[in-house]
Amino acid sequence: MAKYLYKLGEWASRKRRQVFFGWIAILIVAAIGVGTMGITFNDDMSIPGTKAEKAMDVLNKEFPHSDDSGGQIKLIFKAPGGENLESPSTHKKIQDTLDLVLNDKAVESIASPYQAGTISKNKEIGYATITYKVSADKVTDASKDKIKGIAKLAEKNGVQTEIGGTVAFSHVKIGGTSELVGIVIAFGILVFTFASFLAAGLPIITAIIGLGIGAMGILISSNFFSIQATSLSLASMIGLAVGIDYALFIISRHRQQLAQGLDVRESIARATATAGSAVLFAGLTVIVALCGLSVVGIPFLTSMGLSAAFTVLIVMLVSITLVPALLGMVGHRLSPKRKKQVNSKKSLVVKKNKDSNKWGRFVTRYPVQIVLVCLIVTGIISSPVLHMELGLPDNGMKSKETIERRAYDLMAEGFGDGINGPLVVVLDGSKSPDTQVSFTKVAKELNDLPNVSSVSPPTPNQSGKFAMVTVLPKTGPNDSKTKDLVNDIREKAKNTNKDEKVKLMVTGSTAVNIDISDKLSEALPQFAALIVIFALLLLLVVFRSILVPIKAVLGFLMTLIATLGFSVFVLQDGHFIDFFGIPEAGPLLNFMPVLTTGILFGLAMDYEVFLISRMREDYTHLRDANKSILSSLKHSGPVVTAAGLIMISVFASFIFAEDSTIKATGLSMAFGVLFDAFMVRMTLVPAVMTLLGKSAWYLPKWLDKSLPTIDVEGESIMNHIEGNIDKKVRKY
């Protein structure tokens, strides 16, 4: 692999202009493609085959009108102080407001609170349902603007008016300040690392080009595949972080070689062969981890993983081609400044410690104590994971300034928390001799279940063999008691089917979200096991060791559990939510554990490869385990530190995003990288390697012969070059 990358790096530096303008041309073509085709995101996050989805299929089949109905907007009214909705003045203001709605020709019908009886018990709050001629996603911005204007007019007249329903008034923003903040912080870190604005700018340029092409590819693909808007944000988050990091590794190696007096073109070729090999391997590891999300069998998670994997593939290819080309363009201007001569006494100290730094000497001096501290800290941070709850964010978790949150709160105030998460129970009486009697009896029994606020009368379909019942819980959509109610209904369905010959099926957005969470919880152990097995086999081949892969996997599991524990502590338990700008505490995103597992595995292996490969390279030459650890922390440690800080800053910048899903993901990923890079890779790993000593590199000879050889650090190309030099010297 290293030999091919050596030739690729040499070719890219020689054909630098063609390579640069080639990538720019691809970016322009992709942008034109997006402008021509447009963007068609699909935010469906259902999972085919779950109990709620099967019930929804029956509901749509037996009650076809419910599927064909147009989008609905709810105008929610609250009477002024001292009045109620039946007060003559308030009644007139509400009726005048609804009359204005009829001016919109897109409106199919209006059900006022007085006609539909949608008025709270204290008569202070009620809502009107506005049904449009088109589906919710096709209601025009003009119609939405009219509703907003009408609501403001009602507010001026003294009636608090909020907007809810199935028509969305806010969407996930594509791009924005998050990426910009991440880039600015990353640039500052690079300037500090390289002490050069030119060297700091190159990783930013290549990452932006790679991310741009990857993002355009996702936008074009949205016209052909079911892709969620959050997939683009996730891909941007990961693509930008690894794009900067991969360029950083190659440029750092190039500058080190220039400082040693190597020719520019030769240095570029060697940097691509050595650091480029590690970039290629690390990138492929991230891609495999992200693609591995597809084995879970959940469509929206598959699209997220594949979208992010595609972006990582593009930035990886940019790193091993465009970076060498730009390095060829800048030439010697990237060479670091030579350090001034030091006095003889100081030079002795420098020489003594030239292959180590203070951190390396500290870690290798107290390995037992450091391992114990790391385990204790991990245990403390991970403890909240024991009460982790999963769910999907609802409007109650949005900012109080949003339209959806205000409507959510007003509906809950008037009708209870359950109004925002109704359960739809489908009654199948096709085998019952007297369906009407059976339906009525079942509805009464449902009303007797714990945590039930109300049950609507059964609504039969045209054949009379099926009926639909709406159950309002006393608790909100993400409350654990609501989940218990869903389970109670399903448990009751087993007995009702036998006694009443009526089959019960529960669905609705709340039930669907509960099923998705359960499905993802079941999938997590399987996916984690797959990742662990893959890591063990991969690292066994790369590092030719049995204990190093085991240590790497255990470190990854520590990172995963600590990250989930931190996420529960902040996002679910509500600690520091004001500091991080989280509107409301609530259950963790139901797909976060699986997503975190896939992403963190790939990123953790990145740092493992860059750190351990240097240890293995030095151990191969020196046969001194302790010196190889010190050398790795001295030479690779600063680069890994800078790379970790860059990735943390990019992920953390997404905390500023408006969407709660993106905000939560950015926060969790930022902590995960922080913990893995500094607690595990830079602290625990060298301490454990010190304790293991030479045994860390033990591999039975029979196994060594049977394993394929993967040259991550480019040893083969370096040996080849050194061999050619030796031949020339002997000949001379």
Automatic annotation (TrEMBL):
Keyword line: Cell membrane, Membrane, Transmembrane, Transmembrane helix
Superkingdom to which the source organism belongs: Bacteria
Subcellular location: Cell membrane
InterPro entries cross-referenced by the UniProt entry: MMPL_dom, Mycobact_MmpL, SSD
Family annotation (Gene3D superfamilies): Multidrug efflux transporter AcrB transmembrane domain
Secreted recorded as keyword: no
SSD domain boundaries: 240-329
Transmembrane segments: 20-41, 180-200, 207-226, 232-251, 272-300, 306-330, 366-386, 527-546, 553-571, 591-612, 633-657, 669-692
Membrane topology annotation: Multi-pass membrane protein
CC per GO annotation: plasma membrane
Annotated signal sequence range: none
Pfam families given in the database record: MMPL
Protein name from the UniProt record: SSD domain-containing protein
